[in-house]
Amino acid sequence: MPKNKSTKTAPSTINLDDPQYYFNRELSWLEFNYRVLAEGLDDRTLLLDRLKFLAIFSSNLDEFFMVRVAGLKKQVEAGVHKRTPDGLTPEDQLTAIRDRLLPLVHQQDQIFERTLKPQLAKEGVYLVNYVDLNQEQRKYLQIFFEEHIFPVLTPLAVDTSHPFPYISNLSLNLGIAVKNPETEEEFFARIKVPGLLPRFVNLPNDLHDSSETPVVWTGVPLEQVIAHNLDALFPGMNVQECYPFRVTRNADLSVEEDEADDLLLAIEQELRKRRIGGSAVRLEIQSSMPEDVQQTLMRGLSLEEEDVYAVEGLLGQGDFMSLLKLPLPHLQEPSWTPVIPLPFQRVLESAEASRKLEREDKDDVFDLIAHGDLLVHHPYYSFASTVQEFITQASHDPHVLAIKMTLYRTSGDSPIVHALISAAENGKQVVALVELKARFDEENNIQWARKLEQAGVHVVYGLVGLKTHTKITLVVRQEDEQIRRYVHIGTGNYNPKTARLYTDLGVLSCRQDLGADLTDLFNFLTGYSRQRSYRKLLVSPVNLRDRMTQLIEREIEHCRNGKTGRIVAKMNSLVDRKIIAKLYEASQAGVKIDLIIRGICCLRPGVEGVSENINVISIVGRFLEHSRIFYFYNMGDEDVFIGSADWMPRNLDRRVEAVTPIEDPNLRKDLQEIMGVMLADNRQAWELQPDGTYIQRQPDSQEHAHGTHKMLMEMALNSVGMG
User: How far is Cα 655 from Cα 649, in angstroms, rounded to an integer?
Assistant: First the structure.
């Protein structure tokens, strides 16, 4: 993947610690979320998919406030003034976040109300405000309210004898002003909109006003149905006003691992706190809410004006996800069925034939891996028919003695977990390292940890102070007179559901050096091993940072010797200041660097004398880019790696990660081809500018559009003769 050598920049006395050379992490994340929103703004995106991206934008913001903004607010409250590498204090960051976010929230609100909503109506999908309903429709909703909604509601008064109620995290609520007609005294009450009920109440199609467009679905926001039937909740009182609002709270867990006798119990206790929620960090309101009602809420939630976000339309647009199930396939990208690679097709056919004939002799996944390393690329290649099949076959194979794997995130009905349970029941030694601290998946992981333990699986919760983020599986198999180890090392979670939505890579191998390395790594994770060296793996926090630094320095040295230097790296986020500074040194030496960074990028490209040899793009589209690939030219003796780690301090210093070299020349070419497709993308790629903004590449015409995801789907189909 070499390119022509760039002109060298003479070494200078530029201070690479200068804040001007770094972007703020939080603001860079907001730019990523803007790129998500932009898919919803883009009229080239199909209509329901545009709605999907608005929903993702909202859900992303919820987590951002629950974790990142909550953390900054805690720092401000604690009097922390430490500056980030870009020179901002926590207070500066909160101000900058609001300044950037206000126009984005306005854009989201306007694009739905003024563009998407009318376009949906043309397709027979009506999201109707209650005030626009006819009398027959209102009568239907009144009966529906009385029978299905009213029994669930609990109005809570706020007065001297009723303190301001606790308002749960991410809840949608109604703030209501009522008046006693006899005393003229006014009161304030709150009603929580039940989260267990559908957000949009469906109206029967035969109640819809006549229309040229056949009616597919008509819905009314649940909060509006409640708001227009409040008399039933406050008999004898006059309802004066009613306004929806939504609250976001701090939801980050705080567990002192070294003080917890039982980590699982400690995290369960913290989860109970999260369900209640920490301090409020954001109040979302409709812009029509009067100042006095807004002030009442701000006082009750201990929030300031800068914590309030007002919109004209609907709150909680993450609920648009429910509309994606509407029977309108022409308004969404066609569903993608992952391809089963040809070698795995033969294995699956053999396994099926053996089951039917009740034969034990069959081609299996172990024979396949024994013939050479295999690269799998999800969701283009089927996760279920490759990685999942590998683990499933291992659980039933009588020659398999042990299975060891890490579980960071997995689905609620995970076939992987069921396979591990079956393996334990079949008498195999099974070890599952379950990361209880996988944010927002803690509860799911606790449930599966208990089920695994009950089945006889050895469940380990990782190391104190280190989150186990690596994606590895080790299968130990007796073959004739010897033991052979089979491994899977990947970039993504063992989650069949996200494997259809996230792009990830994995290698299946039975190379002795990788098997020995994974054995050492599992001993490090489960026992008292202090392993400090590995044969092939780059492991954090042991040697990953140092080795990546050395690989960059080697390219620098080649350039200083008048040769070519080339680096291509793909990851989710680039934050680590030391790595960024080293990349700046490489650029100054003349190393040509292409970075494919989906999310946060704190490196400032294109700065004369510092980073003019560095280009950064971000790919955003139908799949979430999650794979990590690292390429170093090394004078033609190329090094290519995949693994679980981004270049962030947490991945390099505070997590257990594994990155593996890809040594098979054909697999290295495959990875270079994947990166080449991304670098040539002119439809989904956004180029990072020196000022921190991103500009989306535009093809000359739709015929010349080359989107990464479409191209890789076509390549996958062609690989099995289906193109």
Answer: 9
Q: For residue 222, what are the CA distances in angstroms to 138, 219, 348?
A: 13, 9, 48
Q: How far apart are CA 407 and CA 660, in angstroms?
A: 18
Phi/psi for 382 (5° steps) reads -65, 130
Among residues 329, 532, 533, 495, which one has the least CA distance to residue 413? 495
Of 378, 469, 558, 626, the catalytic one is 469
pLDDT tens for each residue of 462-499: 666 778 889 999 999 999 889 999 999 999 999 999 99
Residue 591: per-residue pLDDT: 98
pLDDT of residue 262 exceeding 50, the answer is no
Q: How many residues can be counted in the chain? A: 723
To which residue do tokens 């080790």 refer?
474
Closest CA to 472 of 423, 525, 421, 397: 525
Alpha-carbon distance of 402 to 419, in angstroms, equals 13
Distance CA 199, CA 202 (A): 10
469 catalytic residue (yes or no): yes
In this structure, the number of other CB atoms found within 10 A of the CB of residue 197 comes to: 14
Query: What average pLDDT does the structure give for the chain?
Result: 90
- SS3 label, residue 47: helix
Residue 125, strand partner residues: 217
Give dist(CA 683, CA 709) in Å, integer.
10
Is the per-residue pLDDT at 184 higher than 80?
yes
Q: What is the mean pLDDT of residues 628-649?
A: 97
Whole-angstrom distance, CA of residue 283 vs CA of residue 157: 20
Beta bridge partner(s), residue 430? 403
Q: Is 480 helix (H, G, I), strand (E, B) or coil?
A: coil
Report the 10 Å Cβ neighbour count for 43: 9
* Amino acid identity, position 617: I
CA gap 220, 124 in Å, rounded: 14
Task: Kindly give the residue spans of alpha helices, DSSP state H, lying in 627-681.
Answer: 649-653, 665-679
Cα separation of 664 and 306, whole Å? 55
Q: What structural domains and CATH numbers belong to the chain? A: 25-331 (3.30.1840.10), 342-536 (3.30.870.10), 539-719 (3.30.870.10)
State the pairing for strand pair 458-460/429-434. parallel
At residue 439, does pLDDT exceed 70?
no
